[in-house]
From TrEMBL:
Domain PDGLE: 224-319
Lineage: Bacteria, Pseudomonadati, Myxococcota, Myxococcia, Myxococcales
Protein name according to UniProt: Cobalamin biosynthesis protein CbiM
Its membrane topology: Multi-pass membrane protein
Keywords: Cell membrane, Membrane, Transmembrane, Transmembrane helix, Transport
Superkingdom of origin: Bacteria
Membrane-traversing stretches: 41-61, 73-99, 105-126, 138-161, 173-199, 219-240, 297-317
């Protein structure tokens, strides 16, 4: 449900950007103070890469003509903890907006709230409460389904509220709300099932919490997840649905009319035009075979950019922590 800048007024977009920036800064500060932060850095990077790749793979929603993709916020929160999850999700969204024009720069804060904040702040506590200490497969699935559905619906509600506050789209709110909330129910269900499966997969490799330790005789978690991310982003994305995503579908079905871009929107769009290496994850040329080549290239570049950004953020956090220790 990446929002585009066109749906947001500058005042609403900047307000959410500022709020999201404060939340990420607070999360980074808390993360830098956690004693196991260094051990989590490799997993932060590869899970960020996996979430980037997973968001490239839209799946069709039967009977609607729309599609959806995983958000990954709940998965990041369960395996990394809420602070690290917000830092990683912010990195993923920044890479998507800058290098692939996926989601607007003005909409960065809204997108972080809709896909990252609600799973970390509300979905994770619910998941932990439902899962208990040692959940079996059925209980774990239920413990992931409920918060994933909650996060998807809150994200959809957030899009509706942010759009309504901006006043840039003339649409019947009740119809838009019904379409948005309805289409994000199956998206949330798929999110919950995949999250449960990934948590079980990580558990079998020896990861049982936000600071996983390798288990004897088992594959290391970080390289295994990285390999899965590379396959998902460079090959799995070939088979992504071409249907409009849930937000685009709901806007079209509700008869929304978005106003002409203003000066701020045009300026931000120009910035994205200069920074986007592969807009919409595709090569400019339409030669035979270029679609899959562009997708694989975009997946590879996006994975590297996400790994680099998360690694750079982690290095800054370590440096800040070392500076505070020296000051004492």
């Amino acid at each position: 449900m990446h929002m585009a800048d066109a749906l947001l007024s500058p005042s609403v977009g900047l307000a959410f950007d500022a709020a999201a920036g404060l939340l990420v800064a607070g999360a980074a500060r808390r993360l830098s103070r956690e004693p196991d932060q260094a051990r989590r850095v490799p997993l932060m990077g590869v899970l960020g890469a996996f979430v980037f790749a997973a968001q490239m793979v839209n799946f069709a929603i039967p009977g609607t003509g729309s599609s959806g993709h995983l958000a990954g916020g709940l998965l990041l929160s369960v395996l990394l903890g809420p602070s690290a999850a917000l830092v990683v999700m912010a990195s993923v969204l920044l890479v998507q907006a800058l290098f692939f024009a996926d989601g607007g720069l003005l909409a960065l804060g809204c997108n972080l709230f809709n896909m990252g904040v609600w799973p970390a702040l509300l979905g994770l506590p619910l998941q932990r409460r439902l899962a208990g200490d040692a959940p079996g497969p059925a209980r774990l699935t239920l413990a992931c389904l409920a918060p994933a559905l909650l996060a998807a619906e809150l994200g959809a509600l957030g899009v509706m509220v942010e759009t309504q506050l901006s006043g840039r789209a003339d649409l019947p709110f009740s119809r838009f709300a019904a379409l948005m909330l309805g289409v994000h129910l199956p998206i949330g269900a798929v999110e919950g099932l995949v999250t449960a499966g990934m948590i079980r997969f990580a558990s079998r490799l020896g990861a049982t919490g936000p600071a996983p330790a390798p288990a004897a005789g088992r594959l290391p978690l970080a390289p295994t997840v990285l390999a899965l991310a590379v396959f998902t982003g460079c090959v799995g994305a070939w088979f992504a649905s071409a249907r409009p995503d849930g937000l685009e579908w709901a806007l079209a079905r509700s008869g929304a009319a978005v106003r002409e871009d203003g000066a701020a929107h045009a300026a931000l769009r120009a910035v994205q035009a200069r920074t986007a290496l592969l807009p919409d994850y595709a090569l400019p040329a339409r030669a035979p075979g270029s679609a899959r080549l562009g997708t694989s290239l975009a997946g590879g570049l996006g994975l590297l950019a996400t790994l680099g950004l998360v690694g750079g953020a982690a290095a800054l956090l370590r440096r800040g922590r070392a500076g505070r220790s020296d000051a004492r």
